Amino acid sequence: EVTRAATIDQLLNHTAGIADFFGPAFDRVSKDGFRTNADYFRHVSSLPPLFAPGERSQYCNGCYITLGAIVERVSGMPYEQYVAEHIFKPAGMTSAGYPRADAIEANVAEGYTRRAGGSELRRNVYTRGAAGSAAGGGYATAADLLAYDNALREGRLLDAAGIARLLRSAKPEAGTRAMGRLGIAGGAPGINAVLESDGVWTVVVLTNLDPPTGVDLGGAIMRALARD
Questions:
Q1: At CA 92, angle to CA 91 and CA 98, rounded to 5?
Q2: Cβ–Cβ contacts within 10 Å for residue 179, how many?
Q3: CA 188/CA 180 separation, integer angstroms
Q4: How far is Cα 173 from Cα 189, in angstroms, rounded to an integer?
Q5: pLDDT tens, position by position, for the chain (228 residues)?
Q6: Strand ranges (DSSP E) for the chain?
Q7: b/e map 28-41, b = 16+ CB within 10 Å
Q8: Distance CA 169, CA 127 (A)
Q9: Is the pTM of this model over 0.70?
Q10: Cys-Cys crosslink for 96: which of 3, 105, 112, 140, Cβ 3.0 to 4.6 Å?
Q11: Exposed e or buried b for every residue in 89-113, given b needs 16+ CB within 10 A?
C-alpha cells in the first residue's frame, strides 16, 4: 500500500522507495527461478518498502523492475519481447538479448568475480538470476551499444521531445543528429559495462570482471578524447 502510490517519474528518478532485489532474501533463494522480469517483480513486490515515495532518493533496481512490469501491463506482452521488438530490432542491435545462464549461447562471455570471498576469481553464475530483468543483466556486444546510441540520436527510438528529455538537450531538428551527453553504466559481480557519448565520440567498454573495471577504463578513454 505504501509504494503503490509511487509515480512513473518517481520510479525513473529512484525516489519510489521500492526494495532492491539484491539482498539477504535474494541470496537465500534459488537463482533458477529468476528467468523473466515477471519473476523478479514477484520477488520485489513481496519485500517491504524502504521508504514512502518521494521521501528521499536511493538507487533502485526494484524501480526498474517495476517499470518493466508496467511496460508488460500497458503493452500486453512480456517485457523481453517488447524490448526485442521496440528497441533491439529498430536499433539494429542484432546480438542483444536475454540468454539463460543454464543454456549459454555460443560466444557469450562468462563473468568472473572476487566478491565471493578470497582473492581468487570465481564464476559469477550463482550471484545472479538465470536471466536478466528490466534492472539489467541483458547481453549485448560493443557494436550493439554503439548501434543503440546512433539509433537514439537519429530518432529511431524516441520522438524529439523524448530525445531532449533523455539527453537533457534542445529538441533536435528533423533529420539531424541529436547532440547532448549520454552516460550509462551497469555492474554486478563479474560484470561491468559503460556507454558514454557526447554525440561526437561514443565510448563503449564491456568487461566480465567486477566493477569498477569497465567504468574506470571508459572514463579514462573519454577524458583522453576530450583533451584531444
A1: 90
A2: 14
A3: 27
A4: 41
A5: 889 999 999 999 999 999 999 889 898 899 999 999 999 999 999 999 999 999 999 999 999 999 999 999 999 999 999 999 999 999 999 999 998 888 777 888 999 999 867 789 999 988 889 999 999 999 999 999 999 999 999 999 999 999 999 999 999 998 899 999 999 999 999 999 999 999 999 999 999 999 999 999 999 999 999 876
A6: 112-113, 122-123, 182-188, 191-197, 202-207
A7: eeebeebbbbbbbb
A8: 38
A9: yes
A10: 140
A11: eebebeebbbeebeeeeeeeeebbb
Strand 191-197 versus strand 202-207 pairing type:
antiparallel
* CA-closest candidate to residue 218, choices 199, 198, 201, 195: 195
C-alpha cell at 142: 560493443
Say how far apart CA 169 and CA 146 lie, in whole Å: 20
Instruction: Calculate the CA 115 to chain-centre distance.
Output: 21
Contact between residue 205 and residue 193 where contact means Cβ atoms under 8 Å apart: yes
Cα–Cα distance for residue pair 187/95, rounded to 1 Å: 20
